[in-house]
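R.M. (postdoc): so does anyone remember the format we settled on? I'll just put the structure tokens first.
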């Protein structure tokens, strides 16, 4: 599996992924983006299976005007459809997804929300986070928690350049994971999401 990390703060979400695709222990792509951002203030990311990542990213790319709640419904429907698929006869798909953004309320953007999805053995496990979180979709061949690189080095209170500091910490985490994993490279895809004005 690949590396995708998301840091959610009350006023921004930062996402980063590597670019490596590995199939049967061979790198097949080195510059593959594993997430899609929306001008509506959300991001969806997928790791674990290249064809699924492409399929879901395209759904979001060609529907840029979705709200966060519509994106959540679309992703859930896609995952429900894909969870019963098999790679080969008797071999179920196993992959992960993240959705994070700023849901719209009647008064404008509300506090950020993130949902992680783990799809395995034809079922979906979800976990929801609000306001602030550090989440990673990790490769199987590392033996440390890269989230600690970020959480242990975040300042105790916010400051004007917090988003830049977070992005730097995310890159440090990605580089450390890339050094330890055969399925992660040092190609960086990184974006910052802020609440949408609409």
């Amino acid at each position: 599996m690949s590396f995708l990390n998301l840091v959610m703060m009350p006023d921004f979400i930062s996402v980063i992924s590597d670019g490596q695709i590995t199939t049967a222990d061979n790198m097949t792509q080195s510059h593959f983006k594993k997430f899609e951002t929306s001008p509506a203030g959300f991001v969806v990311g997928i790791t674990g299976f290249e064809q699924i990542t492409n399929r879901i990213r395209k759904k979001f790319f060609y529907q840029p005007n979705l709200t966060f709640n519509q994106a959540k419904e679309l992703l859930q429907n896609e995952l429900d459809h894909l969870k019963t698929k098999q790679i080969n006869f008797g071999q179920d798909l196993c992959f992960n997804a993240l959705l994070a953004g700023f849901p719209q309320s009647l008064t404008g953007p509300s506090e950020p929300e993130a949902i992680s999805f783990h799809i395995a053995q034809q079922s979906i496990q979800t976990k929801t986070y609000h306001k602030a979180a550090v989440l990673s979709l990790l490769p199987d061949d590392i033996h440390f928690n890269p989230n600690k690189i970020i959480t242990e080095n975040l300042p105790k209170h916010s400051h004007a350049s917090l988003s830049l500091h977070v992005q730097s910490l995310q890159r440090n985490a990605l580089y450390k994971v890339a050094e330890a994993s055969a399925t992660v490279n040092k190609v960086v895809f990184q974006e910052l999401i802020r609440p949408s004005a609409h």
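R.M.: ...and that's the designed sequence above, right after the tokens. Also worth knowing: The longest helix spans residues 162-180. The mean pLDDT is 86.
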